[in-house]
Amino acid sequence: MDKQTDFVLRTIEERGIKFIRLWFTDVIGTLKSVAIAPAEVEGAFAEGIGFDGSAIEGLTRSYEADVLAHPDPSTFQILPWRGEIDPTARMFCDITTPDGQPAVADPRNVLKRTLAKASERGFTFYTHPEIEFYLLKSREWKDGGPQPVDRAGYFDNVPGGSAHDFRRRSVRMLEDLGISVEFSHHEAGPGQNEIDLRYADALTMADNIMTFRTVVKEVAIEQGVYATFMPKPISGQPGSGMHTHVSLFEGDQNAFYEAGGQYQLSETAKQFIAGVLKHAPEITAVTNQFVNSYKRLWGGDEAPSFVTWGHNNRSALVRVPLYKPNKGQSSRIEYRGIDSAANPYLAYSLLLAAGLKGIEEGYELPPEAEDNVWSLTDSERKALGYSQLPASLDHALSLMEDSELVAETLGEQVFNFVLLNKRQEWKRYRDQVTPFELDTNLGAL
């Protein structure tokens, strides 16, 4: 028995833990949970917990339904919102087939595979997300749309405001779970908030994001409000993104840093950016996986719609933040396309795969965008060679369907399921008659 496993078993006994939740996600990024008793944990470590994978979105095909959930002892944490009555802990799981092979449709395994490819080249992939979400008075909405808890704006301090109390409670709970928070503040939209997680390796961060969403939902329930990660819940207001700062390290050295380079960027960093830009349109169906995602991407308010990069340019898809002189470890890039509803395991897999492709193939970085890309005309953007991200989920799926990079990174089963699931979503959206059409056409036609 290794030290981590022994620590978990000892902690369960010493702290009187009554339930242990085994967590994993489906292909769409929905958190799944099964609770086991303390007496079952040692067996779960040794053999896994079996369940019917065909009941989970995209996990297995019906003729290969049996799978096993193997808890990762390094992810053990006591859930603070459960309190001292029936204390409960959680562990994330890796999903395998009965013969011990990784389940091909386990999103956590998809990210592990991609990280292993990076590791073969000597790289460790770090991420640091800025996660936005809306706080609403309730889940219900009327003709006026969802009702935010306040009318505050960017960085506003609202004494006694529910969002202020909410962020304080959420941050404390995240810290109790071992998830370090760098910043928290009110965002630009009414009721919109942002909490930034301190950087970590991509697998730890993907687990942290899934935990983060659960914490935010739990605190909202506790405080009598509703939290949503929907990309664009309120018309005319900013959408919720998950801008992610990324960097590659070779051992203890930041592979993106070069002391004499432009913006202190190394050739590796430039090739990584070039790879991300080249493949951004074809990975968008995963980084922005819902019909509603494209209301955010094409709704303005600093959402990136065009495939550009720039130094501290918030209208660009890839931003190179202001560097700190003599702090090479902080060199990084920020990908601004991902929204808060993305499956972090798959989104980070594709972001890394696109960057690695740029490094492997020696992609050349195009000229940077120095202007506000949104303020340019279509003809000006065309003259500058700025292509655009997909304008709809349907468009994004068409690009993804032809992508060798996405198919190879996700694997055949995940790739096909995402296409099937999202085609169905697009069809349901296309088949409806919307209030906009009724307001515009019913009385006039």
Automatic annotation (TrEMBL):
InterPro entries: Gln_synt_N (IPR008147), Gln_synt_N_sf (IPR036651), Gln_synth/guanido_kin_cat_dom (IPR014746), Gln_synth_cat_dom (IPR008146), Gln_synth_gly_rich_site (IPR027303), Gln_synth_I (IPR004809). One of its GO terms (molecular function) is metal ion binding. It is an enzyme of class 6 (ligase). ATP binds at E182, H245, V246, S247, R314. It comes from the Bacteria. Its cofactor is Mg(2+). Keywords: ATP-binding, Ligase, Magnesium, Metal-binding, Nucleotide-binding. L-glutamate binds at R296, E302, R314, R336. GO terms for biological process: glutamine biosynthetic process. Binds 2 Mg(2+) ions per subunit. Its EC number is 6.3.1.2. Mg(2+) binds at E130, E132, E187, E194, H243, E334. Pfam families: Gln-synt_C, Gln-synt_N. Residues 107-445 form the GS catalytic domain. Residues 15-100 form the GS beta-grasp domain. SMART domains: Gln-synt_C (SM01230). PROSITE patterns: GLNA_ATP, GS_BETA_GRASP, GS_CATALYTIC. Belongs to the glutamine synthetase family. This is Glutamine synthetase. It comes from Curtobacterium pusillum. The gene is glnA.
